[in-house]
Amino acid sequence: SQQGEEDPQALSIQEGENATMNCSYKTSINNLQWYRQNSGRGLVHLILIRSNEREKHSGRLRVTLDTSKKSSSLLITASRAADTASYFCATTLIQGAQKLVFGQGTRLTINP
Amino acid sequence: DVKVTQSSRYLVKRTGEKVFLECVQDMDHENMFWYRQDPGLGLRLIYFSYDVKMKEKGDIPEGYSVSREKKERFSLILESASTNQTSMYLCASSFFRTSTEAFFGQGTRLTVV
Fold first, then answer.
1. pLDDT in tens, B23-72
2. Does B102 touch chain A (CB under 8 A)?
3. Dihedral Cα A48, A1, B49, A42, nearest 10 deg
4. DSSP string, B21-36
5. CA A9, A21, A76 angle in degrees (round to 5)?
6. How far apart are the C-alpha atoms of B107 and A91, rounded to whole Å?
7. Is B40 at the interface with chain A, CB within 8 A?
8. In chain B, which residue's Cα lies nearest the Cα of A36?
9. Cα distance between residue B112 and residue B108, in whole Å
10. CA dihedral over A86, A87, A92, A96, signed as positive or negative
């Protein structure tokens, strides 16, 4: 079963605007990661946030984690056309071996 | 740079054939993963391995098996390919630590006819 669920499934915004994607998960985690996938390609790691962290920044990316709500958000500021891609959250669970379980993804389109 | 290489970018096989998808990583990673990706379903874990000859089932192992005889190589086997196994297959690897990123191959788009 899917651990993470992203929301929205698709998002279309104008270049320069901020994009926010959300991820909810079901069971306790060690960490949560965000990945990006350009059309038809493999995934590229963007950022990792540990379960004891609440917020993390990397360039134009800001990730928050609320373990009480079992949710995370990814904010991309000042979006660019090149940010058009699918974005996935993935979790590593506390229980069991280090399975990396992905959500269904958010398809982000940046309109010039 | 870390490299995860999948043996084929595109593959077309016939129903009933035995299919091997190969994945090789060059970073001495302990963990290796096989996912399939279908529209609207995201990435679903088929199998993963945390050591040579060790494997664990993911969420959708039915119809698949895996082999890890060497640390750098993780093979996905479709014993008897069926049309519902037409999909994009993604291999990934990572270190055996609790907070570590995974590196992905470029994907193999398999079509079973």
1. 999 999 999 999 999 988 889 999 999 899 899 999 999 999 999 999 99
2. yes
3. -60
4. EEEEESS--SEEEEEE
5. 130
6. 21
7. yes
8. B104
9. 12
10. negative
Is the pLDDT reported for residue A3 higher than 50? Answer: yes
The token pair at B32 is 């290796």
Minimum distance, in Å, between the CA of residue A1 and any CA atom of chain B: 6
DSSP letter at B80?
Answer: S
Closest CA to A24 of A41, A2, A46, A39: A2
Confidence tier at A95 by pLDDT (50, 70, 90): low
Task: Check CB contact under 8 Å for A33 and B35.
Answer: no
Structure tokens at A83: 């940010």
Q: Which of B112, B111, B113 is nearest to B9 (CA)?
A: B111
Q: Which of B56, B88, B104 sits opposite A97 (nearest CB)?
A: B56
Residue B112: CB atoms within 10 A of its CB come to 19
B-chain residues within 8 Å CB-CB of A6? 42
Q: Which two tokens stand for residue A63?
A: 């990730």
Searching chain B, which residue's CA lies closest to the CA of residue A38?
A: B106
* Tens digit of each residue's pLDDT (9 = 90 or more) over A25-75: 988 888 899 999 998 788 999 999 999 999 999 999 999 999 999 999 999
**What sign does the dihedral B74-B44-A87-B111 (CA atoms) show?**
positive
Q: How many residues does chain A have?
A: 112
The letter for the amino acid at B9 is R
